[in-house]
Design goal:
With about 325 residues, this protein is mainly beta. It is built from five helices and 20 strands.
Length: about 325
């Protein structure tokens, strides 16, 4: 298990939801034809299509960046394994609901894979509920193989890196984002992040949450089952190693984004997606701009916790 005792905490700028609503409406209109951003009661996330282990995204919202890409490339650091229950305590929120994007624990599952974390961490008198999925390359046909984590494993671990949103999982007011027909170069997550970066240039804001690609297709990648034997020193090396796919809606995505890195060596955006038809992985962008439809629910985070920050870092492989 990696040492998570050296955690850095940073207080983020948290505008009112109504202010964010106006800022994001204006920004997203530069990238999509139809945009509607509003403040709503969070829908019941235990229901379809989400099937999360909690009802909402509210209650002490915070994000964390655990480990990082330097523990994956140029060469893998196999000792970097983490536990969601321990992370929740490090976030000063034991029993938190955690979602986001991470790498699966290769020591446990016997291979490298993408993890789509959905974990209600343990609390006094309550065991953890792990609703996560993981996607690997199917050795039979080289295609995407998505599986429910708890069907095979009983732990709540992940490895190498994770970008996670944590909260109490309560109902409450959230940002609802509807966007259709993309005209710009950015997918939804990058459009949200760059909008915030442009409007609040001297502040750091973060959003975490979930969105559904209701119509269209998306570009994703899945890491190979085996870590690279040769060092991956450039973005081209990494992209040639990764396996890329185009997958179909509906896709349930879980995302963490930060408008500006306050000097913590952050991955400023990271999104993984899963589906109920067996496809999922690391989301880049939709591939059907004319027909894509996004529906998302997000909350601004109050704090960021930087856990096990790599001492030696680089900018490779962070797309």
């Amino acid at each position: 298990m990696a040492d998570i005792s050296k955690t850095e905490k940073f207080q983020l700028h948290v505008p009112a939801l109504e202010e964010l609503c106006s800022v994001l409406q204006t920004g997203l209109e530069k990238n999509f034809v139809n945009v509607q951003v509003s403040v709503v009661e969070c829908p019941d996330l235990t229901k379809d299509p989400f099937q999360f282990p909690v009802k909402g995204l509210c209650g002490k919202p915070r994000i964390t960046d655990v480990g990082g890409v330097p523990y994956l490339v140029p060469v893998v650091h196999r000792d970097k394994e983490y536990n969601m229950n321990a992370v929740s305590k490090e976030l000063e929120l034991p029993g938190a609901f955690i979602l986001g994007a991470a790498a699966a624990p290769s020591r446990i599952i016997g291979m490298n894979a993408e993890l789509m974390p959905l974990v209600l961490t343990e609390a006094e008198g309550r065991s953890a509920v792990n609703s996560s999925y993981f996607s690997s390359i199917n050795p039979a046909d080289g295609q995407c193989l998505q599986e429910r984590y708890s069907d095979k494993y009983s732990d709540c671990n992940f490895a190498l890196l994770g970008n996670l949103y944590a909260c109490e999982g309560k109902p409450g007011k959230v940002l609802e984002i509807r966007a259709k027909k993309r005209t710009g170069d950015h997918g939804l997550v990058t459009a949200l992040r760059t909008t915030l970066e442009g409007h609040y240039p001297d502040k750091s804001l973060a959003l975490g949450g979930t969105f559904v690609i209701q119509k269209g297709k998306a570009k994703i990648h899945i890491m190979p089952r085996e870590f690279s034997v040769c060092p991956l020193n450039t973005n081209d090396d990494v992209n040639n190693w990764l396996k890329h796919f185009e997958i179909s809606a509906p896709l349930i995505c879980q995302s963490v984004l930060v408008s500006r890195d306050p000097g913590l060596d952050l991955r400023v955006e990271h999104t993984h997606c899963f589906s109920h038809h067996g496809e999922g992985g690391h989301y880049y962008i939709d591939t059907t701009p004319d027909s894509v439809e996004y529906l998302g629910y997000f909350m601004p985070a109050e704090f960021i916790y930087r856990i096990d920050r790599p001492k030696e870092t680089h900018g490779v492989g962070r797309d």
